[in-house]
Amino acid sequence: MEHVQVLIAGGGIGGLSAAIWCRRLGLSCLLLESKDVLGGQLSQIHNEIPDFPPRVYPNGTALLEELLGHPVIRQLRPRLGETILRIDANTHEVHTSHQVYRADYLIIATGVSPNIIPALADCPRVLSPWFSTTSQAATVKGQDIAVIGGGDRALESASNLSPYARHMYLLVRSDHLRARSEWVDRVNRLPNLQIMWHTEVERYSMENDRIQLELRSEKKEAPNSITVDWVLPRIGVRGNSQAFASLPVFDEHYLQTDQTQRSVPEWIYAIGDVANGAAYSSISLAVGQAMKAVKHISLGLQQQPEYE
């Protein structure tokens, strides 16, 4: 069993920032990333990043390239393609797809994943969760699109796609939109958008490379089905916390922490989106939380230099 002082789970900007702070504060660390590349969701950000000073980045890839050039990251020896399966809160054992570690501290920075609509799980005409409605909108020009969701991201997507799409549907399972008023006002002015309230997808079938959605609705006048070229679900995200079933969570499987990012038991910390929830998803916040978690570990070790 390999002993690790600080084990970092996740190679996105939060996990990489934690590694930088470990080096700065003299802590040894090992970073695990389930995918075969570092960067987490940064490479999936196709829009401009104007709120991570001092630079304005054209997209996430540009930020990631700069981050990977950091001296600490260049010397980092992450273990890619290694997934945490479970932890033992009492023994400090972390079981992965490759081996078992004994970690003095664990920092979880595993991010989030998009929620999935079971009825569309294997549908070939569902656009990727990472589909950019700004840089990739022209690829669906002249086609019919169903956007599913009633929050900010769903309405932003509908607004961005409207100039390119022939006709659009916005499927909302409730009787109101959860988005900010600016997005509500914008979609209400779209000439080619039809909002379908109290509507959910029950199943789908393919018809000549188009998808027929069988719908369930409380409204008697609502159609039983619609046929479109593409479906774009925008129904939120959930924390990637499956491997940490014993830890306290809130809302959509986000890990609950105290003000120092510490969970229960106290040798485990969580940072970034997996601990913040969708409303506070932020690159800047993830970086700051990485500092806070590692700093708290370092201060604790200074007070108790010998860890048992």
UniProtKB/TrEMBL annotation:
Pfam families: Pyr_redox_2 (PF07992)
Gene3D superfamilies: FAD/NAD(P)-binding domain (3.50.50.60)
Gene Ontology molecular function: oxidoreductase activity
Keyword Oxidoreductase: yes
Domain FAD/NAD(P)-binding residue range list: 5-287
Keywords, alphabetical: Flavoprotein, Oxidoreductase
Subunit structure: Homodimer.
Species of origin: Brevibacillus panacihumi W25
Cofactor: FAD
Protein name according to UniProt: Thioredoxin reductase
Cross-referenced InterPro entries: FAD/NAD-bd_sf, FAD/NAD-binding_dom, Ferredoxin-NADP_redctase_2
